Amino acid sequence: MKVEQIYTSCLAQGAYYIESHGEAAVIDPLREVDQYIAMAKDRKAKIKYVFETHFHADFVSSHIDLAKKTGAIIVYGPTTVKTGFDFVVGEDGQEFKLGNVKIRLLHTPGHTMESSCYLLIDETGKETALFSGDTLFIDDVGRPDLAQKVIAELTQEKLAAHLFDSLRNKIMPLPDHIIIYPGHGAGSACGKKMSDETSDTLGHQKETNYALRADMTKEEFIDDILTGLTPPPGYFPQNVLINIQGYQNIDSVIKKAKTPLTVNAFEKAMLEHCAIIIDTRDAQAFAKGFIPDSYNIGIDGSFANWVGTTIVNTKQAILIVADPGREEEVAKRLARIGFDNALGFLKGGIDAWKKAGKELEMITSITANHLATIKQKEPVAILDVRRASEYNSEHILNAINMPLDYIKNSIKKLDKEKTYYVHCRSGYRSMVFVSILKSMGFKNLIDIKGGIIALKKTKKFNISEYKEPTTLL
């Protein structure tokens, strides 16, 4: 028996490959299927099942493409949802034979109503591992407010009550030695305070996970789970529907996105399709010259999350600017979250645009020390675009918290004639923020290189730990 965790950091997502005696199963696979097919081929195994813990909101699964390419059976937990593809509706307690092992479905509603965990039973009949999806994370549990974005009557209170029962009745009675393999880790928006660890024993989680406290009442649980939840990224409901209704073949999506476009063809596509240009280069390289109205969302960061958060509409036409050789990587990461309408990339990158004599824009980006010098001469308005929780932990005195997560609300809160100095933690999110607002007509935003890390190093700014931030939302 083999169990492999395939962890994708940019989405903080764990998929799993299980194999026994020539048969394999994949749990919660990401959109691109080749990696799973290659694993099975290398081991001379056949993928028999694709197990889904629920209809995902934060990424598009490869369940449909993987089943078509391998003949695997798609399995979901109990649900009445009508889909655009064939699948098996598993029953609570149903066991699926895989080689010499068995996988038992445990229906655990709460995160969503169809949410299920999969219990691995080894060759000797011993319960060994639980693939817990978004029901149980390491040091956290799945948020119970996402399903109501799709089905209004499923209130977060109702779902939280279901989650309490699922944890107490289905998971906590399992043996302490069982390894928990969750669907996500720290950085995912599917929970609120997940650990950086990507697996743990159930016994240890009973000791450390706030949601598994043995003497917790259902009312206490509901209150704890719902406290501190922030609105999820806007693209989540669309991804749920894509996973339910179906999607384009991944190969055709990537092929279209990898279409090389000359400068003239790129410009034509901009106009004809009202496309958004996503420039995926490093923030400081972008600042020195970019195509007007481009969004800078760097590929070397939480790219998919910020595309989905700032653009939201998965059907939006997109054009790609990337460092040569990274176009396919960008295309795959867009497809992971259902942005399938990438029309191609600028052949030759930004250098081709420059050589063609086309217009370039720039963003002023200054050092923390430079800002300190300006501050000595005149008042400065500082925008902190980190999340409220980060801001609450520590922030520059009098800085205004305006999280990138809710950038669409910023337009009516800012004065286009006023100069603002923008920072995040390290300089990635601030450039995303400034580039998007610049495309909307805000010309007086200045980026701070290195973010709050650099600002603190200067020792020229007062750091506040005031717990009630001034937030423009």
Which helices and strands appear, and what pairs or packs with what?
Elements (H helix, E strand, L loop, with lengths): L1 E7 L4 E8 L2 E5 L6 H9 L3 E6 L11 H8 L2 E4 L11 E2 L5 E4 L2 E7 L8 E6 L5 E7 L2 E2 L2 E2 L14 H16 L7 E4 L17 E2 H7 L9 H9 L9 H10 L4 H8 L2 E2 L1 H11 L2 E4 L3 H5 L7 E2 L6 H9 L6 E4 L5 H9 L6 E5 L2 H7 L9 E2 L1 H10 L4 E3 L3 H6 L1 E2 L3 E2 L18 E4 L4 H12 L5 E4 L2 H8 L4 E2 L9
Summarize the structure in short.
Residues 275-362, 376-460 form the Rhodanese domain. With 473 residues, the protein is an alpha/beta fold.
How is this structure best described in words?
This protein has 473 residues and is of the alpha/beta class. The chain folds into three domains: 237 residues, Metallo-beta-lactamase, Chain A (4-Layer Sandwich); 107 residues, Oxidized Rhodanese, domain 1 (3-Layer(aba) Sandwich), CATH 3.40.250.10; 100 residues, Rhodanese-like domain (Oxidized Rhodanese, domain 1), CATH 3.40.250. It has 16 helices and 26 strands. The protein has a six-stranded mixed sheet, with helices on one face. It has a six-stranded mixed sheet with strand order 7-8-9-10-13-14. A five-stranded parallel sheet has the order 15-19-18-16-17. The longest helix is centred in the middle third of the chain and has 16 residues. The chain is globular, with a radius of gyration of 24 Å.
Descriptors:
473 residues; 6-stranded mixed β-sheet; 30% helix; alpha/beta; 22% strand; Oxidized Rhodanese, domain 1; Metallo-beta-lactamase, Chain A; 3 domains
